[in-house]
Automatic annotation (TrEMBL):
GO CC annotations, alphabetized: Gemini of Cajal bodies; SMN complex; spliceosomal complex
Name by which UniProt lists this protein: Gem-associated protein 2
Function: The SMN complex catalyzes the assembly of small nuclear ribonucleoproteins (snRNPs), the building blocks of the spliceosome, and thereby plays an important role in the splicing of cellular pre-mRNAs.
Annotated family: Belongs to the gemin-2 family.
Superkingdom in the source lineage: Eukaryota
Subunit annotation: Part of the core SMN complex.
Compartment(s) where it occurs, according to its Swiss-Prot or TrEMBL record: Cytoplasm; Nucleus, Gem
């Protein structure tokens, strides 16, 4: 007569057990292959049918789930929406940039960085903000002073930030790309658009690999909604921020296939 264990898990090896289970010491090491198989069988028979895991809820509070909002963007005001041909042209250019970065990544990442370039640690969010924006923007100084600093012959990158040089972004793996992107988008949620931010967002999107992870999916949608929100508050079509905001919305919606966020020209 078969045991309950054999009914659920049919015996695969033709091993005869001459000794009874009481003669086996489950705490000691098996002396031969037969004892090992018998120990495994006895241990399995002693397992409860239902096991309840002891879970600490505190460990699940951080990043337990990914909340990807499906809310759309603010519609572009009349006259602010780019044409479909413009959007298609930007997507084509962006695709070419991505292909070039992927093709030449090894070349650029092998180049030696300048002595003044000290890239922050992957977990140093504040350090990345200072690295990308510089102290002038990071500390909240007016954009006019930032532009004046950028116009000076000798740039002080500690003040105006480091541009996303290929020698820098080519060194970033996907974890770092996503972390920096999330950091900058989080800063953007509470601050106005700035040229340094736009350059870095474009470069990070160009390095972001497809298919997107859930975290990346949520992040770029957040970026597009923020751009559309700022665009809806612009007073004139001549605002210098408009092309950059339109471009970022276009890339998220058209290239990364978030079509519900796309601008629909009339």
């Amino acid at each position: 007569m078969k045991s309950d264990v054999e009914e659920l898990m049919p015996r695969l090896l033709p091993v005869e057990f001459g000794a009874s289970g009481e003669e086996l010491d489950l705490k000691g090491p098996p002396r031969n292959p037969r004892e090992y198989l018998r120990q495994v069988q006895l241990e399995a028979s002693q397992c409860p049918e239902v096991v309840v895991a002891q879970i600490d809820p505190k460990k699940l509070k951080k990043k337990q789930t990914i909340n990807a909002s499906v809310a759309g963007c603010h519609a572009a005001p009349v006259g602010f929406c780019p044409s479909l041909s413009w959007q298609q042209h930007q997507v084509s250019n962006f695709s070419d940039v991505r292909q070039s970065i992927a093709k030449n990544r090894n070349h650029w990442s092998s180049n030696t960085l300048d002595d003044n370039v000290e890239m922050p640690d992957i977990t140093d969010e504040e350090g990345w903000k200072k690295f990308c924006f510089g102290e002038t923007l990071y500390l909240g100084t007016s954009s006019s002073r930032t532009e004046a600093a950028e116009a000076e012959p000798a740039l002080d990158h500690s003040k105006v930030g480091f541009p996303p040089f290929l020698t820098i972004v080519s060194r970033l793996n996907q974890s770092t790309v996503l972390m920096v992107l999330e950091t900058l988008v989080g800063w953007f949620e509470e601050n106005d658009f700035a040229p340094q931010l736009g350059r870095w967002l474009y470069a990070l999107l160009a390095c972001l690999e497809k298919p997107l992870l859930p975290e990346a999916h949520s992040c770029i949608r957040q970026l597009a909604r923020r751009c559309a929100q700022l665009r809806s508050a612009l007073e004139t079509e001549e605002d210098e921020k408009l092309p950059a905001l339109n471009l970022l919305v276009c890339l998220v919606a058209r290239y990364f296939e978030q079509s519900d966020l796309a601008d629909q020209p009339e």
